[in-house]
Amino acid sequence: MAYDGPYSIDPLVASFLDRAPALFIDGGFVASDGTATIAVHDPSSGKVIAHVPDATPADVDKAVCSADTAFQDGRWRHMRPADRERILMRFAELVVERGEAFAQLETLEQGKGIAISRMFEVGASSEWMRFVAGMTTKITGRTFDTSLPGGPQHWTTYTRREPVGVVAGIAPWNFPMMIGLWKVMPALAAGCSVVLKPSEVTPLTALMLAEMAIQAGVPAGVFNVVTGFGAGAGTALTSHPKVAKISFTGSTATGKAIGRSAMDQMKRLTLELGGKNPAIVLKDADLAKVIPGLMAGGFLNGGQVCAAASRVYVEALLYDDLVGALSAAISGMSVGAGMDANAQVNPLVSAAQQAKVLSYLDDARSQGADLVTGAAVPDQGYFVSPTLVLNPAESLKLTREEVFGPVLGITKVASADEALQRANDSALGLGASLWTSNLDAAMNLTQRMEAGTIWVNAHVFIDPAMPFGGYKQSGIGRDFGVDWLEAYTETKSICISH
Ligand code: NAD
Description:
By secondary structure, the chain is α/β, with parallel strands linked by helices. The chain has helices at residues 11-18, 57-73, 81-97, 99-110, 114-133, 176-190, 204-216, 230-238, 252-264, 287-299, 316-331, 351-366, 397-400, 416-424, 439-448; strands spanning 23-25, 28-30, 37-41, 48-53, 143-144, 155-163, 166-170, 193-197, 223-225, 243-249, 268-272, 277-281, 309-315, 370-373, 387-390, 407-413, 428-429, 431-435, 453-456, 471-472, 475-476, 489-497. Strands 14-15-16-13-12-18-19 form a 7-stranded mixed sheet, sandwiched between helices. Strands 9-8-7-10-11-21 form a 6-stranded mixed sheet, with helices on both faces. The chain has a 3-stranded antiparallel sheet with strand order 5-6-22, with no helix packed on it. Helix 2 (57-73) runs parallel beside helix 8 (230-238), helix 5 (114-133) runs parallel beside helix 6 and helix 10 packs across helix 11. The radius of gyration is 24 Å and the shape is globular. The chain binds nicotinamide-adenine-dinucleotide (NAD). Nicotinamide-adenine-dinucleotide binds at residues 170-174, 179, 197, 199-200, 229-231, 234-235, 238, 249-251, 254, 257-258, 272-275, 306, 402, 404, 430, 470, 475.
């Protein structure tokens, strides 16, 4: 449908929306088997900007079979690694060349600020793409001596790493393009085929990405996209017998459900799930670093970040200064649509997410919590004002559950030990930060904090070289790092007697 919003948009975005996005199967856009569609909304206005198919089980089967055929006939995995690497590098270049279109499409469907879309969804994503593309030529096994009868001179034993097969990538709505690429790229680098299901809330950039991959030279059938709801298309995909591995990023509840069903067919699994991430501020911390660090850590993308800071434990000496500075910062933020480059507070992704975040705040208010609300937000669109909750009681829902919105709890503590005990008192363990200028404290506490990533004097910085994933119920497995492709390959031992 034609875009009729108030912003002047890139012609590539306009033509993409005009073309009525369809499923992407076997190298091209195809109509769904069914008639049901899903409306995609602009979060700044609530207006519908596109419809995508709600894929039926037959559509999903078609996509998986296309991926499986491509895997079985070896059109991708048997290609010379150097050629695959070049194609994936070209894919990254095309994403950069179309960067403005990708950034705008992401902002239009997700709501985040255009500068964030440019910096993360396009800029950071392209760096991840090149990092992974380069791994295509560096997949290695090992040789080793065994103690089998006759001695090692009579045996040659080694391992090969082989692509696992068809990968189902399931992505959430907070960084749809970047997280979608975190599924697709390692799968392709390892020689797998992939079917990506983006969130029903933000399905558009995944479809544009698939088009780019084909233009870059990825063969038809190797990268497919199905759009649809989790309960329908998502379940059909993750339970499909021809899917060998599931790479899922999303909520802990959905991750558990997918994990249970994956076991029936012993599918390989990577789960990147929710967080309730603490930040410990010691009395010797430098507030000039803490304030901007927590503003970004807590409010980037409206707090819709899995590793966002959500629980701050600050030693008493700095409590008043920290609360004063953060209160001033949130009240001075400018508010507006993501397409408005000057707006710092942008809408949340959907009416449902807005209602969910507001319900946590209503619960807190009804229990007499002390709330500091930031800049006023408009009624139109899915806005929530950045909010501080001072010394939140344990009984509040927002104290223990992931809010996934612009809400930061700040608790005064008597000591570093109390901060540590409270920070670790969670079923989740994705990220955590420590703010201090005391090296001994940093060395001591980073070893005792329970999370997959610990930042010191920073929060929420990630990098392709740095493994990322969750302790406890924040997930299973790690993304990124030099070992990333292991999760997309099987180890085969070859044992030759001679
Ligand atoms: P969600 O779990 O509701 O949905 C994620 C995806 O799973 C969507 O594509 C959805 O359609 C699909 N899905 C839902 N039910 C399914 C099912 N039964 N079978 C198969 N697929 C199904 O999560 P969300 O609301 O889209 O995203 C927010 C959540 O994602 C937060 O909890 C956040 O912490 C988490 N997240 C984690 C990371 C990480 O790296 N750990 C990164 C980003 C987001």
